[in-house]
Structure formats: structure tokens, C-alpha cells
Design goal:
The chain is built from 19 helices and 14 strands. It has helices at 12-23, 35-42, 53-63, 72-78, 100-113, 130-135, 156-161, 173-182, 184-187, 198-229, 233-241, 262-275, 283-306, 334-344, 357-363, 373-377, 390-393, 397-400, 418-423, and strands at residues 4-8, 27-31, 66-69, 81-84, 119-122, 143-146, 166-169, 193-196, 315-319, 348-352, 368-369, 382-385, 408-411, 427-430. α10 (198-229) packs across α12 and α12 (262-275) runs antiparallel to α13 (283-306). The protein binds nicotinamide-adenine-dinucleotide (NAD). Pathway: Nucleotide-sugar biosynthesis; UDP-alpha-D-glucuronate biosynthesis; UDP-alpha-D-glucuronate from UDP-alpha-D-glucose: step 1/1.
Length: 434
Amino acid sequence: MSARVTVIGTGYLGATHAACMAEIGHEVLGLDVDPDKVAALRSGRVPFYEPGLEELLAKHVATGRLRFTTSYEEVAEFGEVHFSCVGTPQSPGGNAADLRYVDAVIEHLAPLLAGRNALVVGKSTVPVGTAERLAAMLPEDAELAWNPEFLREGFAVEDTLRPDRLVFGVRSTTAEARLRAVYAPVISNGTPVVVTDFPTAELVKTSANAFLATKISFINAMAEVCEAAGADVTLLAEALSHDTRIGGRFLRAGVGFGGGCLPKDIRAFTARAGELGVGRALAFLREVDDINMRRRSRVVDLAREAAGGGFLGRRIAVLGAAFKPDSDDIRDSPALNVAAQIQLQGGNVSVYDPKAMDNARKAFPTLAYATSAEDALSGADVVLHLTEWQEFRDLDPAVLRDKVARPYVIDGRNALDAGRWRAAGWTYRALGRP
Ligand code: NAD
């Protein structure tokens, strides 16, 4: 059954959610405070790179089933169910989540909802306890639910239409029934639904991210040990992955995790545990964070060594700027962090990424940017592979051999074919391998 759904905050999560809500048959109104974003979305253009999203958006904008606005009045007037999808970044100068955007949504919406019997659904990743506080800000006949989002950038559409599970944090059977109705086409595909209270729903998301970050840092810690012991972490991971209790996903050693979620989420989770008096329980997440950040320094150290002990007068090619492939998101990107460190130490850095160049230029205007991978490599003393785009895996090391000053590649993602690069005359180094 079609519902009138609004999506407040149309960034990576919200724009995807809005287009997918239209795809499963709802009338959708998206709202953002950024008028440029709204103008782009209205014209059927996604203001960031996400495979498959623009087609979906354009299709539903064209039929009028998906519209965008900057007006909260229009949203309150139109919607039966309101999804809040605004950002929860790390607080400036602290580890806790900055809840000003989440709060602003309720502050704007609450006074407009009286008498409308609306359901407000939080999707942002928030510290446990936030939903209870926000629920108290709504008028009596409006209800809150918490429905955390697990989508992965690069697979956002697929993950929204066919998620691993849906989590409904609710206080009433009415709220649960309304969420089941909105997601009916997704649930009928066989998606499991877990119905919980508010705090459990909030914690499912933060603990999922804590687990994923821990798994990555676990294999990166093993990489540190492998480096000291002369072992090969890629073979170690392969052997571990045959144990179905461990599994192979998120077990690739490399320069570590970044992006707009894992780093800030594990810090906010640690900060919140401290406030709750259970800081000890999550003390290990600090170590997870430390291991992760040490991998970036390790790449810089390997690059310096490869450059002959110092970066002055050396050309360093950096392949990758996005925090992961198939996305243009550069928030807390290991690739750009490494590039900036090397530039600070006097290196001539040339960065190339298939999709994230505009975002990278805005965030790091003093780095030099190339027009292609080949252009970045031209005359390089050291090549760093830091975001595992397919385009980089497909590069022909034999052709590139003649473009560089010295054929030296450091594979920060353990994703290039080491044998092929070595056979083409390159010195190939990778994290956690001899
Ligand atoms: P984002 O920064 O891309 O998008 C947030 C949007 O909210 C922006 O467009 C911003 O202009 C808008 N906004 C800010 N204040 C507003 C207000 N008062 N009213 C309306 N719009 C407002 O962030 P994102 O990556 O989409 O993340 C949003 C939330 O989803 C975060 O809590 C994040 O942790 C969580 N999340 C993100 C992902 C992901 O892969 N990006 C996955 C799961 C969960």
C-alpha cells in the first residue's frame, strides 16, 4: 500500500532511502537544508557518486512520485511517515557524536506535527539514549521509532532494497505495524525483521560497526606481527577464512578503514560507554582505532624508505582518494591522509581517483591532482595503491614500467596481482607481507 513518506536530510543515506522508498511504491518528499543539493536532486541528478542511484532517482523524479523541498512546513503537511537521515559527525574537538543536526530536525518538525498522527523514524547512527530524549520532544499524537541503517556506500541501492535485516526500535504495536506496512515490499522478499526497544535498536548499529572495525583491525594487527616475523598476512587470512566461525569478509589487511562511519562511530560509542559508566567494556575500541591509524603511518614509513630515506625532491603517485572503491566519499580517507602526510614531509604528491577528484580537491586544495592513473604515475619514484578501484587492478604494470622514474609500488590494499607486477620488473611491497 502506498504511503506518503518524507526523508529529511538527503545525503548519502537520505537520497538513497528516498529513491528506494519511491521504488517500492511510496509517494516521497525529500528535504534538505542545502538548496544546491535540493536543486540537483530535483533535476534528477545525484550530487555524489553511488552506482545505480541516479537511474533510480531520475526515474521517480520524472513520474513525480519523488519530489524535493527545503520547506519543513511542506514536509509536515505532506507526510504520514517522516524518516530522519541527517548526519551525526564527530564533535569538533571531541570523540562524542555531534547531535546538533538530529536535534534540529525534531526542533523544526515537532511544532508542525500536532494533530497529524505522524510517525517519525530515526535512521541516523546515534548514541544509545538519543531516541528516548527525542521522543519526549514530539507532540502527544506523534510517535517516534528508531530504524538504524546498515547500507554500504557502493552498494547502497541494493542494500536498501534487499537489506540483511531490518531493525525496528518501537514503543507500540502501532508503530511496528506502520513500519511493517512501509517496508512491506522489502519484508516480502524474505528480509528478517528484528523488533526491539529504542536502546537496543540504537545499539545494534553501533555494535555492528564496532564489530566490523574490530575485524579489520584484528587482521591489521596480525599484519604488524607478520611484518615482524617474516610471515604473509594474505595467506594467513586465506587460511583463517576457511574456518566458517571466522569467515573471510573484512579480513583483508591494508591501510585500514576510513569514511564517514566506522572511525567516528567507534569513537562516539566509546565516549557514550564512558558516560554510561561502562567505559572499561569498550576500552578495546581505542586499541582498534590505534591499530587502524598506525597502518596509515606504516604506509608513509614504507614510502619514505622506498624513496631513499626522505621525500624531498621525490615524486610520489597516490592511486586513490575515496575512502573505498565505488564511492566518491573522501571523509576520513586513509588515501588522502597518507598523501597529505607525505606532502607535509616534503614529497611531490600526485593524486588520482576515478570518481573522488572534486571532493578531494575541495578538502585538500594544496595537493596536486592528475588527470589519469598514468598521468599520476608519470615520473614517479614511488607508487602508492591506496583505494582498490577495479581500474587500478586492471592497470598493466608492463606498460606503466616505462612511465615511472623508478618501478616501485606499495600496495596499501593487498589488491594488486603481486606476481604480475614483479614479473613486469617492479619492486612490489605490501602491508603484512615479506
Ligand atoms: P551526509 O552528510 O551525506 O548527509 C546528511 C544530510 O543532512 C546533508 O545533505 C545535510 O545538508 C542534511 N542536513 C543537515 N542538517 C539538516 C536539517 N536540519 N534538516 C534537513 N537536512 C539537514 O551524511 P550520511 O552519510 O548520509 O549519514 C547520515 C547518517 O546516516 C549518519 O548518522 C550516518 O552515520 C548514518 N549512516 C550512514 C551510512 C553511509 O554509508 N553514509 C550508512 C549507515 C548509516
